[in-house]
Amino acid sequence: MSTVQITAADVNKLRQQTGAGMMDCKKALVEANGDFEAAVDLLRKKGQKVSAARSGNATSEGLVSINVSADGTNGKLLALACETEPVSKVEDFRNLAQAVLAAAVANNPASTEELSAITLEDGRTVAETITELTGKIGEKIVIQEYANISGEKIVSYIHSNGKMGVLVVFEGTNGVDITEAGKDVAMQIAAMNPVAVDKDGVDPATIEREIEIAKDVIRQEGKPEEMVEKIAAGKLNKFYKDSTLLNQEFVKDSSMDVRKFLDNTSKGLTVSAFKRVQLGA
One Pfam family of this protein, by short name (predicted)? Predict the structure, then answer.
């Protein structure tokens, strides 16, 4: 039982300090016997409990943020996810996304785990800060995706709704300004969602699955068994054309594929890697 009188001013002070709700602040101060630091710790612990309780909840909303270095050789992409669209528009959530991306730029972490362990200016780690905001908002918040990629030239694209982002690594620019062409390719990736840069980059398990599906369809169509392998190979080539970036029909000019478009832009220009993230997909 608290022996210290908790005033409305005390509650408001803690609320301003932590951003937690009025009743939560009052309960924390009562439990902490008026000790502000202990009350802050209690609120943070409440955040941890909220985070654990909501750990299974779907995070289909959020914000995708991108930073490309001034020399264009490195790009970082962050997808900070939450449960509902209104939370993705809250200032605290957007400020958190900005702070986490800034931490990534400053520290150059290679993975989500490394990013989560970075200490921010207030002394808390990225993971602790996310947990605290989870407690404040009462909704699961996670780093859904983080990418850190380098190359000769990085071009980025963020969709207008802020829920999809693309980083593309170009090689063979030969000193040509490929900014506009790069944007076109990034938008192609956003729209067409290729599974790999070229057929050599497709997961062998995906290839095997496509071949088996094709064979089943061919057999159901009553084609002779001696034709199954040949027809399946043709369907696999169609899959490569539809699903690998360089072989896809260029969206802005159907007379050529993306490989040809790049070669027309600068002889030998190609894509070596890309990262596409879409929240809610």
Answer: EF_TS
